[in-house]
Amino acid sequence: MSFLGIIVRLGQGLASRWRNVWFRALGVRMTGYVWLREVSIPRQWGDIFLEKGTSLDDGVVLLCSGPSSTGKIYIRGAYLNRYTMLDAHEKIEIGEGCMIGPHCYITDADHGTNRDIPVSKQPMRCEPVILERGVWLGAGVRVLKGVTIGEGAAVGAGAVVTKDVEAWSIVAGVPARVIGHRKG
């Protein structure tokens, strides 16, 4: 690595450490060091729990809404790539060793669909989202409310996951469907 590369890397490390201090002071719970690039956590900091080994790249947004509760967003040593957004009203849990590609969106809620009431006036319908250990989401994946993605599953780029995915499955498409299984 060049001298300039070392200086850039050192600056990024110091900035990440500063963000660790800043977000802890705001109330984000962290166990150990978490790699934080330029992330956005706009509110409800106490609802977020990040375990040691978690890495959040540039543009990641952790957004909590609704009544406050501990662990609304819980990330266990996973990597979230650039411009990924977690939008939690009840619970989004990301397991250890998960890799989430760029521009993914994960939400645990949606609005009602009663045609007699404007969508903006309808209550949120919430169901937890869980990504078990070692899940891999390709670029641009959407994971919707109530979904559990089993251990080691892989989700193809651009997929929209609307139903549970079995462990070690490979899914793709809109809506996502099984196209194979990972082999040992």
TrEMBL record:
A Pfam family recorded for this sequence: Hexapep
InterPro entries given in the database record: Hexapep, Hexapep_transf_CS, Hexapeptide_acetyltransf, Trimer_LpxA-like_sf
Gene Ontology molecular function: acyltransferase activity
Keyword Acyltransferase included in the entry's annotation: yes
Top-rank taxon, per record: Bacteria
Keywords: Acyltransferase, Repeat, Transferase
Name of the protein: Acetyltransferase
